[in-house]
């Protein structure tokens, strides 16, 4: 999930959290692999300008998180409560098969980028959210 101020999931989530309706979706234990939009752009430039780098690189932050932690960190950053819970069944009723995008997590690490020394400006959710607010 690419996190940006002007696109992606955050502009959709912010109003809900600011109104006090932020909370966990599904079990909360599903993994979310995310990256700050600036780190994603810098990683793409790094890969394109380094001819000795080839192969597959995971463009994710080095610290994936669980849904529960993601929503709690966002609520804390906005100084809003983390009270609601959207059951997976309810999300499936509304979104159908697309609910799997939220309910089925993936834990992906940028192992190759880290091994080669890529410097993440926003390695943690706290740092990413602080940059947006």
TrEMBL record:
Domain of life: Bacteria
Source organism (scientific name): Alicyclobacillus vulcanalis
Domain DUF1731 residue range list: 86-131
Pfam families named in the record: DUF1731
Entry-linked PANTHER family: EPIMERASE FAMILY PROTEIN SDR39U1, SUGAR NUCLEOTIDE EPIMERASE RELATED
Protein name: DUF1731 domain-containing protein
């Amino acid at each position: 999930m690419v996190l940006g101020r002007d696109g992606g999931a955050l502009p959709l989530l912010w109003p809900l959290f600011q109104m006090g309706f932020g909370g966990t979706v599904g079990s909360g234990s599903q993994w979310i692999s995310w990256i700050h939009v600036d780190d994603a752009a810098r990683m793409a430039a790094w890969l394109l300008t380094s001819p000795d780098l080839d192969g597959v690189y995971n463009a994710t932050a080095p610290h994936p998180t669980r849904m529960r932690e993601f929503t709690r960190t966002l609520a804390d950053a906005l100084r809003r409560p983390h009270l609601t819970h959207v059951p997976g069944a309810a999300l499936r009723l509304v979104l159908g098969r697309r609910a799997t995008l939220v309910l089925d997590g993936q834990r992906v690490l940028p192992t190759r980028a880290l091994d080669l020394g890529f410097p993440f400006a926003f390695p943690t959710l706290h740092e990413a959210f602080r940059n947006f607010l």
